Amino acid sequence: MVKVVCLFNQVDEPRELSAFLYDELIPMLKETIEVIRFEVTDFKLNPVAALQGKNPLPTFAYMIEIYYPSVEIYEKALKDPQGQEVFNHLLTVCEEIIEVGLGNVQLVRK
């Protein structure tokens, strides 16, 4: 399994970013082929900074993780017109505030 991780920096207008994610991007992801799961994290606090007496606002506002069964299927999804539309829309709207990475998922249990 592989996942795409999208980290969204804090912005001046957090409501606009939230609206984009929940009203546009997430509905598009729900319709994207081959996505087996996705998660959204809304960061509220940087606990290390808070303990150090610094600004507790985290660097990132949101993280979206998009899971695919394999790299091959991820590549297939990117070639699909709907997959291209999702990623192009994401980069068009968020190019200045996003970091994106792709990695293999290693499941580790206690």
TrEMBL record:
GO molecular function: oxidoreductase activity
Domain EthD: 26-86
Designated name of the protein: EthD domain-containing protein
Provenance organism: Seinonella peptonophila
Entries under Pfam families matching the protein: EthD
Highest taxon above the source species: Bacteria
